[in-house]
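Onboarding guide, step 5: your first structure request.
Type a short instruction followed by the sequence, for example:

Predict the 3D structure of this protein.
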Amino acid sequence: IPKRDWSSDVCSSDLIKYIALAASILTASFAFAEEAPNLNPPECLQTNIDFWHSVYTKYTKYDLIVFNKETMEVYGVYPRPTGSKKTIKAAKKQLIYKYTKNLPKAERKNVAIQAGARGLYERGLLNFGMYYPSIVEELEKQNMPPQIALLPFVESAYNSKATSPVGAVGMWQIMPKTGKLYGVKNRKFLRNHEVAMNTAIKILKKNKELLGDWILAINAYHSGAGRLLKASDIANSKDICEILNFMDENDVKIKGYKFYSRNYVAQLFAIEKA
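The system replies with structure tokens like these:
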């Protein structure tokens, strides 16, 4: 996402409620077919969902949340210091040390810092009404879960101009290489709403075909289908909770499937909850 102080784009609570209400009115006419799958938040991710809900709605990027990546317990929230990147990095290091100095070495890696994202959430609300209804309508036609319409919220706050540090493009944050596999030869077209939406839908449908479960298909949108296939095979399950529990209980590590990949689904349901 282009560098900009989204946290300064603070809407009044009344405006936010009005935008959300207006968007819900816009989508009221899109009645889902009975067979369209409506996903429920996985029970094992409820603590994670609550954590990300706070990240999106309670804290700004000027808040440093010190927490445990395994239990999602929040140890404390501190104001981000002003100054250079070096100063901020040093302050974070001190905070981490404060909570790890008395912990066994094996547990220290679980203490981490997450900045708040309320500004990003508020910007997503401003863009919500422009894109969400058309995405929901297309998902209904494709008999896909309505929650998928919130993926661009998680990915970019519905920002078609977004570009990630690794080169993912547009509101759906599709890698140009992946776009080419689905017929989009020029990366600039990944900024087009309909092109990007249709490409993302193809990716997700392919994930579902490979994995046999919509929650896993959504998770694979972030981490790649290969990693979820491996996790599913190892745990001999297509249930996200059974997979994560098996990995934890047996200390199974899959390269590239770490904290943020494991929390991708939780972020989606945190946005739905907000």
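Each response can be followed by summary notes, for example: DSSP finds 13 helices and three strands in the chain.
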